[in-house]
Amino acid sequence: MEPSPPVLEGRLPTADQKQIKTIFDKLESDQIEFLDQSGKRIIELCTGLLGVLFAVSAFGDKFPPPYIAGNLPAKGLAVAVLTLLILALRAGFLVVRPRRYRRYDYNLSAMRAEITLIVEYKRRWFNVAAWLFVLGSLALAGLVASILLTA
């Protein structure tokens, strides 16, 4: 049998310690709303970049435009941008999509566990969306560079 840890004498928290706890309590309580707003922002940014991609690929009177038609790297990058941004858009939707949650009216521990699951789900999909968005943005920059280098 392991010895039990020593019992420490308690003391009242200082003003600084109370302030730190208040900040963390606010961060924790605002986490779900923050993740929802971040997911919506990813969706907006992906939609904007998809508009840029469509403008680049459909610019001119012929489709595909000559600066893409004979440029194999540009074609590959255009497909990569489209794929990455659509996947980021999908992941962003998973962050904000309404879902059913278990509600335990008389079990605070279970409610706390459910909130933790909600936050982890939203955080996981936001991270996926953010990385896909970054990769899609880099691929779009590569596409523009590829077009400029062959012009």
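Second entry:
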Amino acid sequence: MSELGERLGLSSHVSPLGYKVAKLMKRYPLPGCESIEEWLMAVAFFRGFRIVRLPRQFNERELIPSLDDLSNEELAVALCQSERRDEPQMLRLPAQMISRKVIDVRKLILVARRERATRILAELARQAVMVEPDHELWKKIHKQLDEEPALPQPVVHWSRIAEPVMKNGRFNAEKWVLVS
């Protein structure tokens, strides 16, 4: 499978966060997680971010890194790196983390700049503010990363980071809200 950066025309770089995640993966192995992407998604799952269904069952008592070892901001950025596999489904997890407001925006953007993940994060923000223009965190991210050039194509369609609110149980959505 190709990298996200390949599709978007972004280059990969030597990532300090990538080294950190690889070390944590060895210290906290999760059965059946053979790739960094699988491991990152499983860590997010164990932290309660379950918008993405994992391909395998895990023991609920698996040991994962603490927030001191790997913050939610670092986890979100690690999932947004151009070096990751081109699986837009994965990008739903950082979107859910931000929408749920368990992220410090200042720290997130600092890590994203260091890891060269700002263009992907900026594109997620563009999609999110289309759904909820007044979402406090997404608005801040969008404003702070406004100078990032748009990508040649969206990393994920806005409907993948939102859910419909039905009116009177009918099929047509009354409105859409970000998944949190």
